[in-house]
């Protein structure tokens, strides 16, 4: 059974496209949405086990222009 993770991301102005392109390449990312509102990108990812959670978040933070993330694991 996989664990679904929802990541809400804010990005530096002008960097949304670059960030989204980099995030699409991360293992486990299933969907990525560029959105309006308080966040710039919403990511839906799946990880095989919760111990992989930190690695997913660290990989997202390595994408260009990432300011902040809020991450939720679906229960």
Describe the model.
The chain is α+β, with helices and mostly antiparallel strands and 75 residues long. It has a single domain, classed as Alpha-Beta Plaits. Helices cover 24% and strands 40% of the residues. It contains two helices and four strands, in the order βαββαβ. It has helices at residues 16-24, 53-61; strands spanning 3-11, 29-34, 41-47, 66-73. It has a four-stranded antiparallel sheet, covered by helices on one side. β2 (29-34) and β3 form a beta hairpin. The protein is globular. 17% of the residues are buried. The mean pLDDT is 96.
Give the overall silhouette: globular
- Give the uncertain stretches in residue-range form: none
Helix content: 10-25%
The average pLDDT score comes to 96
CATH architectural designation: 2-Layer Sandwich
Going by helix content, strand content and strand pairing, the class is alpha+beta
In spatial order, strands of the major sheet run 2-3-1-4
Query: What is the alpha-carbon Rg in Å?
Result: 11 Å
The tally of domains stands at 1
Can you count the helices? 2
Beta-strand portion reads: 35-45%
Work out the number of β strands: 4
The CATH C-level class name: Alpha Beta
CATH topology term? Alpha-Beta Plaits
H-E order: EHEEHE
Span between termini = 12 Å
Major sheet? 4 strands, antiparallel
The CATH homology group name:
Lrp/AsnC effector binding domain/regulation of amino acid metabolism (RAM) domain
């Amino acid at each position: 059974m996989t664990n679904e993770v929802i990541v809400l991301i804010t990005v530096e102005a002008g960097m949304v496209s670059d960030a989204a392109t980099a995030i699409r390449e991360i293992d486990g990312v299933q969907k990525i949405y560029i959105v309006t509102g308080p966040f710039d990108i919403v990511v839906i990812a799946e990880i095989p086990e919760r111990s992989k959670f930190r690695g997913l978040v660290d990989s997202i933070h390595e994408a260009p222009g990432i300011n902040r993330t809020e991450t939720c694991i679906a229960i």
